[in-house]
Amino acid sequence: MKIIPPKPFTIETGKRAVLLLHGFTGNTNDVKRLGRYLSERNYTVHAPLYKGHGGDPETLINTDPIEWWNSAVEGYDYLRSQGYEEIAVAGVSLGGIFSLRLGEERPTKAIVAMSAPAIAKSVDSLQSRIVDYAIKYKKLSGTYDEQNDSPLKVAQYVRMPSLQYLQGIINDTSSKFDTIQTPVHILRGLNDDEYYCESADLIYNSVKSRIKSVKSFINSGHILTLDKEKELVFEEVYRFFESLKWND
Length: 248
Known about the structure:
This protein is α/β, with parallel strands linked by helices. About 45% of the residues lie in helices and about 15% in strands.
């Protein structure tokens, strides 16, 4: 089976711009429905694809977390280059921590952090995501062999040495939360790992934004934009952006 790789996408409609950021081992499909929802309500949206993501696992493990971060920055700079002066950022999982990092380093209208990690995860936990990604890719491409592609066997050849550096990015971003004054809305799924629920509290308590809030979704897990309550998530993001004073 031929896998059609996901691509970055841009939908230009209104003067209000939103940068959409996907998660670790994810791709732009994570945020595509949210992008359409916002574009139908007169928001211009742009979603970059992190380097190495969306393709085979070998390509992914040969990239570096700083390259993923640079892809997010390039997405922001693209919207700037198109003349958008007010840019909000919404990201899920790794995209959530990247959204907050952009809030520390670039002018942002607002930030929506969905299921964002704010405490460094163990390398083993991150490595297991790579293994899951490799197995899923094999199944989709029709090359999966139940005998030879067990998690233990796959883990032997999809080691990613730069995951320690990803921990550093998360820790460094978290240490600067108190520099964020942009409005921040934090979304979490109560069926997600407790780690992410605790991260949501840490983000809320650390940012210095006058406008900040946390919203929990009872029946949702980690990727809120794809889970059971996705339509409620889309509406929540839209309402938050609508509550702001834009210069249009």
